[in-house]
Design a protein that fits this description.
257 residues, alpha/beta, 2-enoyl-CoA Hydratase, Chain A, domain 1, 3-stranded mixed sheet, 11 helices, 9 strands, binds 4-(N,N-dimethylamino)cinnamoyl-COA
Length: 257
């Protein structure tokens, strides 16, 4: 797995993808979005990998789309349209994705973190949607995801002022799962990933899908989806093994079947 703009490191069931344009604060150029998308799609298909961790390294998560690259583009420039297609694929990754956010997560960077399933933030993390300062608005889900996560008024303030949230406020408002010292951020994300990787994977996949469903459907439809997924899992070998192991007071051995 060789990509110019991301580094992929696999360790058993965990893959860590590191954005790698530190000189531009990991600004999300077309090339970076494309590499990230292709790497994550490849990992999603990799039977060995169960959980993906996304990080920007030890200084910055991502300072948003690459403004230098975007400045002279029109709305129908292939670079903008193709970027959108690659970006959409990141939202469709079926395996759990944990973000380890150190430093700035702004604009597209904040949106990338929000499209992950769990966010571990370093004490120095800063989240924001400063697009309004450039005469645009968030374009990869920021107005929608922030509103779902924080409620209308808080989302509105962030999107209209472009102000940043610090890590503690982000945790208090429910934007991130937890805040840890920067030097422990990736380790904590990997620990969470390992915990998930040890669970029966059919249940993990169904659980992710069901939780995501809640953002896109009404309650009745969401409950129906949950019920069907629940029944389906009753037919799995891992379900029998999980329950039998509990009854026999032993550790379950899951096979992903
Ligand atoms: N793009 C390009 N270069 C960037 C950059 C960015 N977003 N952010 C930083 N850099 C570059 C700087 O230009 C500088 O490069 P040199 O001048 O040294 O060559 C280098 O990174 C270091 O940055 P600073 O010198 O500015 O560092 P500071 O620590 O002083 O400030 C900062 C850090 C993060 C506060 C500041 O750099 C900053 O405000 N950056 C811009 C943040 C921003 O506005 N982000 C939102 C971008 S708009 C789309 C969907 C969504 C989007 C696009 C398309 N489609 C549907 C197609 C998303 C849009 C956005 O994210």
């Amino acid at each position: 797995m060789n990509y110019e703009n991301v580094i992929v490191a696999k360790d058993g069931a965990i893959a860590v993808v590191t954005l790698n344009r530190p000189q531009a604060l990991n600004a999300l150029s077309y090339g970076l979005v494309k590499d990230l998308s292709l790497a994550m799609q490849e990992l999603d298909q990799d039977a060995e990998v169960r959980v993906i961790v996304v990080t920007g390294g030890d200084k910055v998560f991502a300072a948003g789309a690459d403004i230098k690259e975007m400045a002279d583009k029109g709305p129908f420039d292939p670079l903008i349209l193709e970027r959108l297609a690659y970006r959409d694929k990141i939202n469709k990754i079926s395996k759990p994705v944990v973000a380890a956010v150190i430093g700035f997560a702004l604009g597209g960077g904040c949106e990338l973190a929000m499209s992950c399933d769990i966010i571990v933030a370093a004490e120095n993390a800063r989240f924001g949607q400063p697009e309004v300062n450039l005469g645009i608005i968030p374009g990869s889900g920021g107005t929608q995801r922030l509103t779902h996560l924080l409620g209308k008024h808080r989302a509105m303030e962030l999107v209209l002022t472009g102000d940043m949230l610090n890590a503690n406020d982000a945790e208090r408002l429910g934007l991130v799962n937890r805040v840890v010292p920067a030097e422990l951020c990736l380790e904590e994300a990997v620990n969470i990933a390992r915990k998930i990787a040890a669970k029966p994977q059919l249940a993990v996949r169904a659980a992710k899908e069901a939780v995501l469903k809640s953002a896109n459907t009404g309650l009745d439809e969401g409950l129906e989806f949950e019920r069907k997924a629940f029944y389906l899992l009753f037919a799995s070998e891992d379900r029998s093994e999980g329950m039998q192991a509990f009854l026999e007071k032993r550790k379950a051995e899951f096979k992903g079947k």
